Amino acid sequence: MDASASAANRQIARAAGTVMVAILLSNLTGLLRQVLVADAFGTQQTIDAFNAANRVAELLFNLVAGGALASAFIPTFTGLLTQEKQRQAWKLASAVANLVVLALSLAALLTAIFAPQVVRYILAPGFSLNPSQEALTVQLLRLMLPSAIIFGLSGLIMGILNSHQIFFVPALAPSMYQIGMIFGVLALAPRMGIFGLAWGVIIGAALHLVLQLPSLLRLKGPYFPSLGLKLPAVREVIRLMLPRLLGVAVVQLNFLINVRLASQMSEGSVTGVQMGFALMLMPQAAIAQSIAIAAMPTFSAQYARGRLEEMRGSLSASLRGVLLLSIPATVGLILLRTPLVATLYQRGEFSPHSTQLVAWALLWYAAGLVGHSLVEILYRAFYAMHDTLTPVLVGVAAMTLNVFFSFAFAAIFERLGWMPHGGLALANSLATALEMIGLLLLMRRRLDGLEGRRITQAAGQALLVTALMSLAVWGWMQISAGYAYWSVALGGVVVGGMVYALASWLLGVREVRSLVSSLTRRLGRLSSGRTR
Q1: Residue 115 belongs to what domain range?
Q2: The model's pTM
Q3: pLDDT tens digits along 345-376
Q4: Is-contact 180 204, C-beta < 8 A?
Q5: At what angle do helices 45-64 and 146-163 cross, to 10 degrees?
Q6: Which end of the chain is more exposed for a tag (fewer CB within 10 A), N or C?
């Protein structure tokens, strides 16, 4: 590997470490929010209504300004910056911001007008059996729609900052959203009930935006009050967005189908699926999203300069890092799912039955953690190459299977006497695994290889060390049977982490030894700096 490629990989690693710290902070505030919400509302009908209503605002954001926008905007914006076309880059950013706000405002207005029809015929038809729950969902939906507009603008600012290699503040922004919801549940919900939590969503979205504004203003980029539809860069973003929008729409359709199916199951199933998925996403965000966010601007710059061999090495290093972290995280979540859920949520209105609902969904969602993590990296690599069509076609095929799997597995689980919402989680995990395989094969062909031997070696090392870790965690769970849930969960995490780290070191896992050496050098510099 040449010096340029090594420098790029080190840059990704440093940025990923910075993003990971911010995401961990966001995860901690997110956990606190979930604990407080679970304590206040458990898995009752009101929180089911809230989760269903919030899904629509998330849908609008994701369709117009979520992953679709980032995948199209960052490569185009970064390309202009790489070519030192600063004015054109800021014209692009301004035009996209104006288009996002306009499109989301119109979509939110139409959704508010037709909210009763959206809830009854699309979102949660099962709620029609309970008119009060259906009416509550409509009210909450209308109240939370402005958050989609705020998030749309804030999401674009994230892309601008990341393109300038500014990662910490954008990665910290989600914690501001969680803080807004925490304020809603603590300060507003005692007087306003579930509407207090909904107002917390609006406050959190505003904080998400406000936190990033100082960093944006320091870039001193000019604003142009134009839609820029004639600009080639804007047309390129739109061209790249169109296939990605299809992919996002299919993914969101799957989420809506899950809510629709879960709304027809036993009470709490919607919340069980939502919370189980959210718990799986926490390690996925810390592991895969941190690396993907840090890597995408580097991938984009490498592709813009025509350095595909360098990009292949950076992508391979990113995939190896994800495997070494996501495989043990998968097994840890599966083994410790019940004490983990009970420790976090089982208090107040969150009963032992609620714990069973969430832990059951988490079991099957955790099985898909590796797939979700690798897909995150592979998607960003395709987007950096200005190819949004290929991953979308693979994603559409996978999510179509997900729909079929959801109906099939839910029915099978019910026949077996298992809680059927677990089938929805298994469907998602299996479809994502198939998507991962398809993307790997296509990317290997696109880059004329992916350093497959090194990736296979990393996966083998991770599996071997994870097997040792699993035995240690299982042994701890046998010893601690009957202890308080928190001690079982905390002890399992500590024991598993120590065994994994020690075994990785003894096995000579290159990435672990590189990390230790990097930390040692950094601590050495800090120490020498203090003694001067």
Answers
A1: 45-244
A2: 0.72
A3: 887 777 888 889 999 999 999 999 999 999 98
A4: yes
A5: 50
A6: C
